[in-house]
Amino acid sequence: MIPEHYSDSSLFHHSLLTLFLIAPPTFLSLTFLQAPYGKHHRPGWGPNLPPPLAWLLMESPTLWLTLLLFPLGLHSHNPKAQALITPFLIHYFNRTILYPLHLLLTPSKKTPTGFPLGVALMAFAFNVLNSYLQARTVSHYINHYDDSGFFWFRFLCGLLVFLLGMGINVWADRVLLRLKSEGKGYVVPRGGLFELVACPNYFGEIVEWLGWAVMTWSWAGLGFFVYTFANLGPRARANRRWYLEKFGEDYPKERKAVIPYLY
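Below the sequence we write its predicted structure tokens.
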């Protein structure tokens, strides 16, 4: 257990403020300039890493830093705190370990474009910031664990939303990997939520972190949800524009970018 020192409290609150402050410029900048990976890949962002390695490295703080910090918290032995951190770790076990393995094992007839090191380093830095905030929030700074009835109500409602989002996210990722394995290049995805939005994988992730915000009932959880939309919303719109430019009349114009019927 870490005693309540000013240094950690100050670091926590400045980190939390940073999470909220970087969301608006992230949204605005990505509205005009897309992160150069995947279908938006372009040179000028450093050497390229193999995509499985890039995902493993840049997402890794969500596991090792969370597991390092969580036991140091005041509430680390509280079953409620342990229940809260579990969905976060499950999501990032999939994103850090399973997703790169799927990328590595998915056969592709095209040479991968690579993942720019500069983008991977920025993602790594964000994951250090966010993992610190979420782990310290759940294990140390949440002060409503004693409110058992309301806690479990929020937790279960948020968990249902989280699991719904994760199911959508994993399903959409697998559809895209299957299309990649067919070796036909980029095609128009069909079926399920792909009939409503260009990026159901992003929609699922946004829904997940909405559920996390409800579960944790915390400023850190809310900040993560806001930042997730600020990051993925503009990229989904860029993906939709890319599909329209590439496929023209063959791409359904009624599909939204990421939020069905709305955005």
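The chain has a mean pLDDT of 92.
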